[in-house]
Amino acid sequence: MPDTYLLKINKDLEKKDFDRLLCYVSEDKRERILRFHRFEDSQRSLLGDILARYAICKRSGAKNAELVFGLNEYGKPILIKPEGIHFNISHSGEWVACAIDDNPVGIDIEMIKPVDYKISERFFSEKEYLFLMNQPEEMRLKYFYIFWTLKESCIKADGRGLSIPFDSFTIDLDGKGIILQDEKNVLGNKTHSYFEVEIDKYVLSICASK
Ligand SMILES: CC(C)(COP(=O)(O)OP(=O)(O)OC[C@H]1O[C@@H](n2cnc3c(N)ncnc32)[C@H](O)[C@@H]1OP(=O)(O)O)[C@@H](O)C(=O)NCCC(=O)NCCS
């Protein structure tokens, strides 16, 4: 199982701490962080980067200054140096999460808020939609977010993000555990493992390849 790091933002960073942490990230990332209009978005993005750096340094023994990052063609941050470590970041509300592993990994955290289930008719596969609609009403919202975060973790592990149509594969929660049905082979012939957990008003999912 990938190592997972979670950070809860109980209180906004003070300006001096925000500025100090900014010194630890790359110039490119710093520019992107400062481009957000809302402080909370800048803060989440900065803390995600810091959390990933912490996780990578801990796992590899490398120093922060030695880390070299890049982006794949879909914008997924990847580690170039040291080699052989994969990570992914997600943030929502007051949580920032990072998963780290020896193989590509995807993580997604979402705050549970009321939704219009028409979204699932549009974005989920038919099987997922039917499963959701057959749940008792009090369970349906939680299942919506379980599907959503598991599917996002898949496309984030893959690295192509939302350019993979959300309804092109199915997460099967019907039988034992969490199983991927990928009849169109959109995610390639990889073996995936899934983890899903609820943390107060949030659902967190991880997809680990292999
Ligand atoms: C990444 C993506 C799935 C968004 O997820 P989200 O639930 O809004 O946001 P999350 O908090 O879970 O994840 C954001 C983090 O994912 C990472 N990320 C960005 N692109 C990624 C990708 N293609 N794959 C995996 N991770 C990605 C980044 O670390 C990002 O953090 P940052 O914004 O602070 O740099 C979505 O923006 C995406 O698919 N982007 C790729 C671009 C793309 O294909 N666009 C097509 C639009 S149709």
Task: Pick out its properties.
single chain, 210 residues, alpha+beta, Ribosomal Protein L22, Chain A, 2 domains, three-stranded antiparallel sheet, globular, binds coenzyme A
Give a quick rundown of the structure.
The protein is an alpha+beta fold and 210 residues long. Helix content is 36%, strand content 28%.
Task: Give the secondary structure arrangement, pairings included.
Elements: E1 3-8, H1 15-22, H2 27-35, H3 39-60, E2 68-71, E3 77-81, E4 86-92, E5 95-101, E6 105-111, H4 118-123, H5 126-133, H6 137-158, E7 170-172, E8 179-181, E9 192-199, E10 202-209
Antiparallel strand pairs: 1-5, 2-3, 4-5, 6-10, 7-8, 9-10
Helix pairs in contact: 2-3
Bound molecules: coenzyme A.
Coenzyme A is lined by residues 45, 48, 74-77, 88-91, 108, 152, 156, 159, 161-163.
